[in-house]
Structure formats: structure tokens, C-alpha cells
Amino acid sequence: MAAHARFRPRLLDSLDGYDGARFGTDVVAGITVGVLALPLAMAFAIASGMSPASGIVTAIIAGLVISALGGSRVQIGGPTGAFIVIVYGIVVQYGVANLLICTMMAGVMLLAMGLARLGTWIRFIPISVISGFTKGIAVLILLSQVKEFLGLRIDALPAEFFGKVEALWAGLPSFNPHSLLLGAACVLLIVAWPKRWRVVPSPVVALVAGTVAAAVLGLDVETIGSRFGGIPSALPAMVVPTVSFAELGPLLAPAFTIALLGAIESLLSATVADNMIDDRHDPNQELVAQGLANIAAPLFGGFCATGAIARTSTNVRMGGRTPVAGIVHALTLLAVVLVAAPAARYIPLTVLSAILLVVAWNMAEWGEFRELRRYRFNYQAVLIATFVLTVVFDLTVAVQAGLVLAAIFFITRMSGLTRLREVELPAPAPGNGAAPGQVRVYQVFGSLFFGAANKIEPLFALAEPADPAKVVVLDLQKLINIDTTGLDMLATLHRKLARNGKRLMIVAANEQPLSLFARSGFGEALGEANLCDSLGQALARATPATDGCA
Asked: How far apart are CA 427 and CA 421, in angstroms?
């Protein structure tokens, strides 16, 4: 129980030997990431069907919890683009109040996963599935930003893909040239911002420049103030959502989707950060923190959050090496809210959409489609299927289908690697005087699991009375694994042979098969005499007159 409930944030380890120089570096990194997080938090929230204030609150509350209690030294948490499609769909179907409940349910799931030490299991999801749904989400984000980027007059975009395309097509005649030109200019500014000036993040430059340009030129574009009335200049009071147990059932599926995606993205982000700073995060501790963050943020009007790869990478590049940088990032956002909230009302929505378009384009890594020809059909099929299903249906369907398809390909591949090969013996076999064909020896290679257990079936013919074989020897030295289905095939072969006065001997079985033999009772049924350490030992006693191995 103590091992399962272990709870030690990396912040505690990071404070050992912490000094003023490290604190100064963390503060600079935290302020930089905090400034970068401001436009992203608002943009992600608006694209998700929420208010910009909810995005900022999420970045503050969740970012603070994830940094203070997480399992990574440099992880930065907050709202991310990956959640846009999911959150928007939940808001459209269930409403904002149920989204908050859904997020808290996902937080409980993440917390349970961390306490149950399931963090390493997330790594079992194939990279082809992750790459496929990431690209699919990027397409949906790009599509969702067309309305704001072009300034289309559409009351509400449907959550469903084809309905969204139809609504955008119908709204094209209403596009706003001012919105298009300002958004395009911001995209160019973000992309062309010189690398030597990247100490000031390009999205922040575009946010300020686009807002000033719209005000000075008097552009007719929609702003945060015209749609949302601005953002509050203080954190909202904590409110516990009213929960009706009768309504929780329909929310389980979307809550699980949020939890799954949050777990995947946070651990993926932490792994990327590990490679950058040569560290190793605690995946279970990270899930615990992610769970607590997603429970806490909705209490203040926020929504789902996870580890953000772009902000985490920026934190590392700016010198952040401890969770203190993440805490400073959250406090920086809080200071901006307290001081500069009135200015946010003038930010054009097309500027935020331009930032999201660049984020979505970069997160997709489109070059991987060109590289697909280098990979096998299995990888190609899983990635493309996950990508298409994410775009056309939803992430849950896509991940489920991708995992099933990947599992089928894996089973097929492993089945192909499992082989049965007969070992030719001199006649007569040395040391036992048996007649030719009375002792048959086979080597088993690979894994004898449910997808390959049928490889044993050809040996059933040796159990027939008409066959001259009296002893069947299976050399399992090259067998790395056996499951209960494979064990059942061996037990069936043993029974068929014994029924006709014949004998099965097992040679050089490895630790895992021997353990299963002992636990299942198969070893006892076979007889200790028929479990031999070497092929030579088995052959020396494989005659009708000898009772097994000495």
C-alpha cells in the first residue's frame, strides 16, 4: 500500500542545493514562458468554445499545481491545442457546466492511474497511433480557426467535421477582408520572426503588434471585448459544481477521453523534456499532479489541462531546470491578470487565430507523411487510419481503432516469428538404441501465445497409433514466452501422446515457461522426469525402457 501511495513531487528533490543563481535563471525562464502562455491560453480557450478568462485561469491554477506537485523538473502545464476538438464537442453537446464536471472526473481518473502506478502503461501506445491522432487534431484545429481568421459571420460552428465544413463553406461570402489581412500579417510575423530575437516569443510580438495595428488603423475586426466583454482583473471565487449522479453516466466516455489524452500528452511532453536536460521523470507522480490539476482548475472556472510540449521546451531553452520556473510562470500569468486585464479587451480574435494556425501547423509535423514510404505497411496503415478517424469521427474512436489495428498487426508479426523446426537425429539415436523415427525432436522458436499456438498442431499427428514415434522431445531453449493458450496446446499434445502410450519431454525451458508450468500443474502432470535440462540428457533416456531424466 505504501508503494502504491508514494507521493513525492520533484520540487522537493530540486530544492536540495538550490541557490540564488539557479533561482535567477528559473525566474527569467518562468517569466518568459508566462508571457508566451498568455496568448496561447486565451486562444485555446476561445477555440474550445470557452471564454478567454477560463483559459488564463486554467493556465494559472493547473500550471501551478503541475509544477508544484509533478514528476518532472521542467514540465509546464496548462490548456493545449490537443484538447480543443474534445472540449468544443463537449461544450456543444453537454454545456459548459458539464464540461467542468467532466474535467474533474477526468482528474479523478488521472489521479487513480497515478496512484495505481499505471504511468508506464501509457508508453505502450504505439507512436503510429500518437502521430496519427496528433495530425488529425492539427487538421481540426486549422479548420476550427477559419471562422475567426476570415471573420466569417457564423453563429456557431458544429462540432462534427462535415457539418463544420458545410457551415464554413456557406459562410464564405461573409468574410471580412480586414480580419484576413490582419491575421495573415500576424502569421507572417510569427513565422519570419528572427531566431536571434526569439528571447521575446514571436506569438507575443504578434499579439502586441496585431492589437496595436487594429487600434491605430481602426480596423473593423471582432475583439475579445466585443465578444466576451474583456477578462476579469482577478481570479474568480472557488465554486464547487453541482453534481447530479444521474447525469454522470453520459459524461464517463468524454471524461475518459480527456484523461487518456491528458496522460498521453503530459508524459510525452515530460519525455521530450527528459531528452533535453538528460533527466528522467516519474510518470506516476506526473499523473497524480495532472489529476489534481484537473480537479482544481474547474473549481475556479477553468477546464482541462496537461503538459504543454511547446511551453515546456521554451522553459528548457530559457534555462529553467526546476519546478520553480513553472511556479513563476503561473505567478506571471496571475500578475498579468491583476495588472493588464483591461487591455485584453482590445485583442483581435483574428490575431489569436493566427497564433493557433501556426501552433497547429507545427504540431502536425507534416513531413512525416513524406517519410511514410520508408516504413512498413503496418505502420502506414495504423497512422493513416488513426489520422482519418480523428478528423472524420473523434479521438476516442480513432485511438481505439488504432490500438486494435496495431494489436492485430503485432499479433500477426509475432505469429510469423514463431516457428517449429524438426531436428534430424542420427539413426539410431545415440545412447538409447531406439529404432529410426521412434524419437522425434523439435525446436520451438519465438513466443507460443494465442496468436501462434496453432504452430503446435502438426505434432498431434505424432500421437496417432499408426505413427512410429514413441517419444516427442520439444526443445524450448529459444522459446521466450508462453501464454495459457500455448500451454493448453502443450497439455493437449501430452494427453494425446499419453493416451496411446507415447511420451512428451520438455528440454531447456526458460524461466517464464517453467513458472507457468509449475503454477498451472502442467509440470506435475508431465512428470519431473520429463523436464530435462539439455537435449543430450533427454536423448540418453528417451526410450520405452527408461523413465525420464536422471
From this structure: 18
Q: Strand, helix or coil at 197? A: helix
* CB 52, CB 228: distance < 8 Å: yes
Pairing of strands 419-423, 77-78: unpaired
> What is the C-alpha to C-alpha distance for residues 302 and 101, in angstroms, rounded to an integer?
11
Give the mean model confidence (pLDDT) for residues 46-70. 94
CA dist 345 → 47, 330, 372, 418 (Å): 17, 21, 45, 65
Residue 266 has pLDDT above 50, yes or no: yes
474-499: pLDDT as tens digits: 999 999 999 999 999 999 999 999 99
- Residue 262 grid coordinates: 491528458
CA distances from 497 to 131, 400, 473, 492, 540 (A): 50, 43, 12, 9, 20
- Nearest to 15, CA basis, from 23, 7, 25: 23
Q: Which three cell numbers stand for residue 305?
A: 489541462
The CA–CA distances, whole Å, from 267 to 111, 125, 306, 309 equal 14, 12, 9, 10
Backbone phi and psi for residue 261, each to the nearest 5 degrees, phi listed first: -65, -40
Residue 113's contacts (CB-CB under 8 Å, 6 or more residues apart) are 119, 259, 263, 287, 291
For CA atoms 122, 126, 131, 136, the dihedral sign is negative
Exposed/middle/buried for residue 366 (C-beta within 10 Å: 0-12, 13-18, 19+): exposed
Q: Is 288 exposed, middle or buried (0-12, 13-18, 19+ CB in 10 A)?
A: buried
Helix (H) or strand (E) holding 319: none
Nearest-angstrom CA–CA distance, 268 and 92? 29
Cell 536540495: give the residue. 16
How far apart are the C-alpha atoms of 422 and 362, rounded to whole Å? Answer: 54
For domain 419-539, give the CATH superfamily: STAS domain (3.30.750.24)
Give one DSSP letter per residue of 221-277, joined into a string.
--BHHHHH----SSPPPP-PPP--HHHHHHHHHHHHHHHHHHHHHHHHHHHHHHHHH
Distance of CA 332 to the CA centre of its chain: 29
- Taken in order 218, 223, 227, 233, is the CA torsion positive or negative? negative
Enumerate the domain spans of the chain. 23-154+176-386, 419-539
CA–CA separation, 136 and 161 (whole Å): 11
- Name residues whose C-beta falls within 8 Å of residue 23's C-beta, 6 or more positions apart in sequence: 324
Q: Burial level of 162, CB count in 10 A (0-12/13-18/19+)?
A: exposed
Residues 6+ apart with CB under 8 A from 91: 48, 49, 50, 99
Residues 79 and 303: beta-carbon distance below 8 Å: yes
DSSP character at residue 348: B
Residue pLDDT, tens place only, 270-280: 988 998 898 99
Encode pLDDT of 70-93 as tens digits: 999 999 999 998 899 899 999 999
Among 38-47, 151-160, 251-260, name the one with the lowest average pLDDT.
151-160
Q: How far apart are CA 538 and CA 265, in angstroms?
A: 53
Arithmetic mean of pLDDT, 422-450: 77
428 cis-preceded (ω within 30 degrees of 0): yes
Please name the residues in contact with 138: beta carbons below 8 A apart, sequence gap of 6 or more. Answer: 81, 360, 361, 363, 364
User: Are 221 and 151 contacting, i.e. CB atoms less than 8 angstroms apart?
Assistant: yes
